[in-house]
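Field reference: sequence -> structure
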Amino acid sequence: MITYIFFLTIIITLILLKESSRNHLFCIRVNEKLGLLKFNTFSMLYIVMSVVVFLFSILRYNVGWDYMAYYDTIMHNFDSSLLSRNEVISTSLIIFSRKIGSANFYFIVNSVITVFLIAFVLHKNSPDPFFSFFIFITFPLFFLNSLSIVRNFTAIAIVFYSLRFINEGRLLRYVVMIMIASGFHTSALIALLFYPLKFLNINSMGIIIMIVSGSILRPLLSSELKSLFPILNIYLKRTSDFQGWHLIFFFVFILFLVVVFRNNLAMGFSNRDANLLVNIFTLGVVIYILFFDTGTLGHRLSLYGIITSTLIIPKLVDIFSNKRERILFKFVLCSGLMFLFFATIYLGSSTYIPYETILGK
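Structure field:
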């Protein structure tokens, strides 16, 4: 647990440095051809934070419930299901890692994509990138989850980045990116449903209709999923292990705030961007609710939608007009996120503790 405390302390320190410092611009002369590279204090602190998260991800050993499955498949040539999922990019990466005798290479490539793509999207699109990144790091279904569902989160990061092509109307480029994401995890194909959402304006009544109609049509939806994505069959079986079911209440609460204070989102993003984010987040929550009793399926599929909460939540801070109220809201939310972060590690101690490193292995 000490390692996780130290890790989060570094993250919080970097955020506090950003809050307490001015955004100075400075330049570095590289050479005559490149000339001056311009940086500012906030960007440098954000890069440092991203690198810290990346290092924490790649230096781990036997952290995450699927870690040893990947490790043994690569290092001990186990004939595991990881090689029979028709996920071409991930399978090729595993085979290449076998040839060079390095499981670390597999985790490094996935971590590069996951951490830096998500960090880039948040930096480019969030009204408060540091707050957004803090949400990603501390909320249990995001960063901590990425240490376990490695391929799945690589695909989520690629889809998250690809959302930009929806509003730009670049359908072909979006589809190509989804195909690439599905090369890591087939579930990424669910994101093909996101493109039509740009044409919809889902209000509160629409959300209720989606949940009710989805519940009624659930057997049909399950049947179609089994038909379209046979690999998901194992996840569609009902189970008594409702992974992360309690987090449904958090997302329903956020969805309630989104519906009530939707105009605040439009002030932070363009109307088009806000509409797409709300629709994708809504679909993610609906999927979570409909399939929460099918083991991992509910949260794995819903993650493609609810990852947008890292962009939505910071803007919800503006529902408070008073600066002190905004600070208090962020403080309470961050405190709650830190509690969830450490509670997840404590309750899942067999998955996260001890935090061992690859150094010396």
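Note: The chain has one domain: 2-357.
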